[in-house]
Design brief:
about 130 residues, six-stranded antiparallel β-sheet, globular
């Protein structure tokens, strides 16, 4: 799975570090069914899907150690299909609807039936 740190995500992170009182948190995971290759200039998913009545999953945030202590931000969340579909991309946002997409990943299509789920783990290492 190829993941890119979007330009909006860079601005979000910069704002987070510069202004510790910012209340927006990039922890909401959405998925899409469209084709494309993730790029730093992307601001939306490829055909974001919201079948099943949900907007986005609220991920669990943690700090992880990749190279040095707490150098990686991790968000883990599970989305469940409300209908049969094929998921091709996912992203992390700072809101349950609309909002700013900070991370995006595209992958080979994963066919799902209603009730199937995917657990996504997004990691952003600051190096």
């Amino acid at each position: 799975m190829a993941t890119v740190f979007t330009n909006v995500g860079k601005a979000f992170a910069s704002n987070k570090f510069a202004n510790g009182n910012n209340t927006a948190t990039a922890k909401y995971i959405g998925w899409g069914t469209g084709a494309g290759t993730a790029a730093a200039t992307d601001t939306t998913l490829f055909t974001e899907d919201s079948t099943g009545g949900y907007a986005r999953a609220t991920g669990t945030q943690t700090q992880q150690t990749t190279s040095v202590s707490n150098d990686t931000y991790q968000v883990v969340g599970t989305l469940t299909a409300g209908a049969s579909l094929t998921i091709t991309n996912a992203g992390v946002f700072d809101a349950t609807t609309a909002g700013n997409m900070t991370l995006k990943a595209d992958h080979t299509g994963i066919p799902l039936l209603a009730g199937d789920s995917i657990q996504y783990t997004f990691k952003l290492q600051f190096s």
